[in-house]
Amino acid sequence: MTADVTISAAGEAEGLATDALRWLFRNARESGADGLAWAAAPSDRETSPTFYSGTAGVIAALLEAWRHFGDDRYGDAAVRAARTVSACVDGHENNSLYFGLTGMALVLRAVHDELGAPQAGAAARRALDQMRARFDGTRWGDWFDLMVGNAGIALGALSLGDADLAIRAMEPYLRAAEQTPAGVHWESERGRTSRLHHIAHGTLGIVYGLARVGRATGRTDLVDLARAGAADVVARNEAGSTGFLVPHSDPQDHPDLTARYSYGWCHGPTGDAHVFRLLRTVLDEPTWQTYVDNCWRTVTRSGLPRRLRPGFWDNNGRCCGTAGVLALACDRIAEQEDRPDFARLLVTDLLARATRDQDGARWSNVEHRTTPSALEPRTGWASGNAGIVRELLRCVRVWRGADPTYAVTWPDQPPPARR
Question: Which of 130, 244, 269, 313 is the most buried (most CB within 10 A)?
C-alpha cells in the first residue's frame, strides 16, 4: 500500500466518522437539567447510562472527536451527557465495567480530567464509593468475569486509583480457581456448567485482570495465577503452531445459538491477542509475542470481514465485529510497524456497509435467523456508532503517524508499546 493510498484512506475514514457523529447528534435526547442521553437504538423508549450500549459509551466517542478535531461542540456535548450519567449513579444497581457503575465512573472521570467538569468528577467518586460498599468479600453478583464481574470491576478500580479495592476484587479468584490438566479456569457465572475461555466472559478476561492488578500492586501470587489461567487456554488451541483458535466454551454453551469458533474481540483471537500483549509486558517473555502473532495470523486468514456464510461475520461493531478487529490492527501498526493493508480492508468494509444520507452514517448488523435480517442501527460502544467512531478516528491518527492512544483509555486494552 502506497503512502498516497493511506492518506486517501485516512481522509475517507475521517469523513465517515464525521457523518457517524452527525447521526449520533440527530438521535440525542434532552435529559434533565441541560443533559443529553442516548438509547441503545433510536426506537427504544428508555435511555441507558451504561458504557456497553448507552450514554457513557457515546461520551467516549465524543471525547475522541473533541480531542481529534479540536471542536468544542463535541466537548460541550460530552459535558451535557456526563450530567445525565452523573444523575443516574445513585440509582444504578449494576456495578460492572460494561453495564454498570465502574464503566460510568471511568467515563465521568475522563470528562472531569479532559474538560474540567467537577460535577462529573464528584459523580465518579460517588460511584466508586458505592462499588466499594456493595462488595460482599467475594463478588458483586452472579457473574464472575471481566464484562460483568470482579475482573472488570478490579480493572476499573485500579484505573480510578483504588488499588485496595482492585486487589480485594481479584483475591477471590485465588480461592475459586478450578484445576485443569494444563492450568486453571473459573466458573464465569454462578451455576453455569460450561467454562468459557475468552476475554469477555471467560478465563482470559480473568487472566487479564490478574496480570494487570498483580503487576501494578506487586502481587506475584496474582500474576502466577494469571500464568496458570493462560496456560489452560493455550492448551486448547486447535489451530496448530502458527495459528490460535480456541473454542467458545467447553462443553459448548448454548450450541443452538453460539458458534463453536469466533474471531472478534469478545470470544475470539482478536481479544485473546490483547491478553497476550499484556502478558508479554508483565512476564517479559518472548513466547507471548508469538501467541499475539498467531492470533493475528488466524484473524487475517479467516476470511473476515467477508460474510462467508450466514452468521459468520454479521457485526460491524467494537465488541463482536469489524471495529474491534480494527483496534487490534492499529495496535500492531503502532507497536511493530505492521503494514496498513488489513486495516485498510476493514475500513473499506465499514465504508461499504454504512448507510449514509442527510442524517449521517450508521450501520445495520445482521441476524441471519430472522426476517428481515438487517437490524436497527445502534448508537453505543458495543454494536453501534460510538465504538465505530472511536476506532475510525484513532485509525486515522495511526495512519498519519500521530498519537495512537485514545481519549478514554479502556482498561482491558493495553496501550501500544513499541517493540
Answer: 269
- Burial level of 87, CB count in 10 A (0-12/13-18/19+)? middle
253-267 mean pLDDT: 95
Q: Which residues contact 205 (CB under 8 A, 6 or more apart)?
A: 145, 146, 147, 151, 152, 198, 199, 275, 412
Q: What share of the chain is helix, strand, coil (3-state, %, to 5)?
A: 50, 5, 45
Provide the whole-model pTM: 0.97
Residue 127 near residue 153, CB atoms below 8 Å: no
Question: Regarding beta strands 178-179 and 184-185, do their DSSP bridges make them parallel or antiparallel, or are they unpaired?
Answer: antiparallel
Rounded to whole angstroms, the Cα distance separating 309 from 269 reads 19
Handedness of CA 3, 8, 12, 17 (dihedral sign): positive
Write out pLDDT tens, residues 305-329. 999 999 999 999 999 999 999 999 9
pLDDT band at residue 1 under the 50/70/90 scheme: very low
Centroid of chain to Cα 129: 24
Which cell numbers hold the place of 152? 472488570
Best CA proximity match to 210, nearest among 259, 177, 178, 179? 177
